[in-house]
Structure formats: structure tokens, C-alpha cells
Amino acid sequence: MPQSEAHTGGCQCGAVRFRVTRLGRPSICHCRMCQKAFGGFFGPLVTAHNAIWTRGEPKWFQSSNAARRAFCGECGTPLAYETRFGLELAIGTFDDPTVAAPEIQVNPRDRQPFFQQLTSLPVRDEESDEWRDFMAGIHSNQHPDHDTADWPPAGAE
């Protein structure tokens, strides 16, 4: 999946942003470290060539003797994974995550036993008046899915 178009992304609060001009193979990693780092059942990652941090710098955690993981020190968003083989960025942090649709699963020995059945779970799509009112009252403080000159916007707390 090599690409030469520039792609941008960043953390939830906007303190850390990145730009990458070439993507490698996108994957989902089932290893236990990725599960814990992402707080989920897997870590969605894509190899990033020519990546630069365009706003702020992430904090790093040395998760093993061979790898370190980047996250936003302000909001905690998991951003990257780095080894001697290079940098991988968290797919969900891209402004357009569809540019890195996973193509492979890695570390299947640690895959959670219920993973294969997740897409067959029932879908709850009914909405009560109470739920609609709740959703209508939400104001997101999340950074938008595009680069901004400044963040947070002037006058925001």
C-alpha cells in the first residue's frame, strides 16, 4: 500500500499533530502490549515513512526492550509504536483513517477468543427521547479532523 500523498492526523486534544508522506502495510496487532496500550482488543497500526510531528511532541513509554510507544501527554491518545524497524502510527489518529484500512492481522496467539464473533453481535439502533436529548447536548472538545493554525480556538477553555 505504498502511497506518496501527504496524510495528517493527531491526538484527540490537538496538542500533537503529524504529517506522513508514505504509508506502508496497515495491520491490526493482537499482542497483549498493543491491547493494553490502546485499551482495546487490538492495536491498529500502519508503517509510516517520512513522518514528522507538526505540532507538539509526543511523550514516549519504553514498553519493552525492543519497542517504545508514543502518546499525547495532555489527553493520553495512543499515537505511535517504534522499533529498530521503524515507526508505525495509530490508524485511528489519522484525519482520514480510511487511508490505512488494515490488510493483515499480526500476533494471532494473543488474539482474544471472542474477537472473531464481534461483528455478529446484535446492533442497538433504537433511540429514546432521553438519548436523543443527551446526544443533542454534547459539545465536543476534540480537535477536528484537519490541520488548524491554532488549537484550541481563541476563547476556548
From TrEMBL:
GO terms, molecular function = carbon-sulfur lyase activity; metal ion binding
Q: SUPFAM superfamilies, per this entry?
A: Mss4-like
Q: Please provide the record's keywords in A-Z order.
A: Lyase, Metal-binding, Zinc
Q: Which residues form the CENP-V/GFA domain?
A: 7-110
Q: Where is this region: Disordered?
A: 138-157
Q: Which Gene3D superfamilies match?
A: glutathione-dependent formaldehyde- activating enzyme (gfa)
Q: Output the InterPro entries linked to this UniProt entry.
A: CENP-V/GFA, Mss4-like_sf
Coiled-coil regions listed in the entry? none
* Keyword Metal-binding in record: yes
* Alphabetical list of Pfam families matching this protein: GFA (PF04828)
Keyword Lyase applies: yes
State the PANTHER family in the record: CENP-V_GFA DOMAIN-CONTAINING PROTEIN-RELATED (PTHR33337:SF40), GFA DOMAIN-CONTAINING PROTEIN (PTHR33337)
Per the record, the similarity remark reads: Belongs to the Gfa family.
Descriptive protein name = Uncharacterized conserved protein
Which source organism?
Devosia crocina
Kindly list the organism's lineage: Bacteria, Pseudomonadati, Pseudomonadota, Alphaproteobacteria, Hyphomicrobiales
